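Hey, sorry to bother you again with one of my protein questions. There's a protein on my desk that I can't quite get my head around. No rush at all, and the record is pasted right below.
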Amino acid sequence: MSLYDKIQSIQDENSISLHVPGHHNNTIGYLKEMNLGMDMTEITGLDDLHQPEEVIRESLMKMDRYPNHDARYLVNGTTVGILSVIYAVKHLDGDILIPRNAHKSIYNALSLTNQKAIWMPMTVSEETGQYDGVKSLDTLDLSNVKLAIFTYPNYYGEVFDIQSHIQLLKAYGVPTLVDEAHGAHFGISSYFPQSSIMYEADIVVQSYHKTLPALTMGSVMYIRKELPIQQRIEEYLTMLQTSSPSYLIMTSLEKAELFYKHYNDELFKRLRMVLIQTLKEVGLEVGSLADPLKLLVSHEKMTGEQVKQIFEQSNIYIELNDEKYILLVLPLWHEGDSFPFEVLINKINSLKLDYYYQEKGRAKFDLPVTSGIYVPIEVKDAITIDLVDAVNKISAVDVIPYPPGIPVILKGEYIKGDVLNSLLHWIDSGGRVEGIINKQIKIKDEH
């Protein structure tokens, strides 16, 4: 089956999206006003993303909800924004602070630029088992730090007191980069958390496509005006972004910004309550964290994988599952949208919860929370072995359960038995892991 045929078959099933991207099968926002004929190039009048002087410059000037920051379109996703910032500081002496839940793009950038980093001490959520914040930085020497990076929010929508950390770093003159991939909708109304930009973060990268109605790969970087490294960031953006930027993606970002500025959350709040009540009435448990756009759904007698399968049997596709939960990413419902909400409710009411009891114990990784040093390592000679035989071997790859894309084993790191067992359990419960294929992994050849 071709990719086209597979996507078409999912559409033919009238599938319902409770996952990213934020346009939810083109039922949310203004993307229907666009058409494929708008897939154009730098002809007369359409300006140049790499040197915007006309219509793209005017478009960027309308991204003005944060007056102290300049906006830049990213057509290669949030990843290219993160890469550009880390490249921009590679000539500087000093350390880079990163969170333990740094996205793989951060580790890739450190590897490409051969820069070491210091892990910040972390906290772990009792609810999700994921990193949910950074502990006090008082134990770290901040006098030699050239950049600090935060993840805010985490994949599940959990946030922390990032403002206090930003203010402490400002006292030391340290610029802050916030990977706000899952918070592009933050601040869209008082019902949602605020963006870290409101707490004076210097550089914030948002994946508009994840929660706002924009095309996949469409992101926006906000850079504080007169930031000393701004010019270098923009130079690297020019080098790292495609020389043929998508006008469809840029236009969708413009439309998503317009959507953000005119959004009214009343319908969203009402439909969210109906959805939660319906899920509970059929016997499911529903939890929510700081971000009301995310819902955790579970059943006391089923694993998250089993719940996911039941939803997919009704052509309801969710964002992810772990051992205990499925994660729903809700649409930003609005007047005039075409999201099939009544169909969704009917499908949920018809779910066949013919469950069977299964011993449950969430796939739990023993997450380190203390500070430490990360040094990129190149592994030249590698062999492939069965995962079960890999305890105490040196990994030749980054091992990344995806989503959320947070490495649990880094290239050059010894493979611990408890992490290996968690990975096997994750895979057996239906999880996908980058770096592991058919339960095999590449390790350093030490012979």
User: Anything to note?
Assistant: The chain has a mean pLDDT of 93.
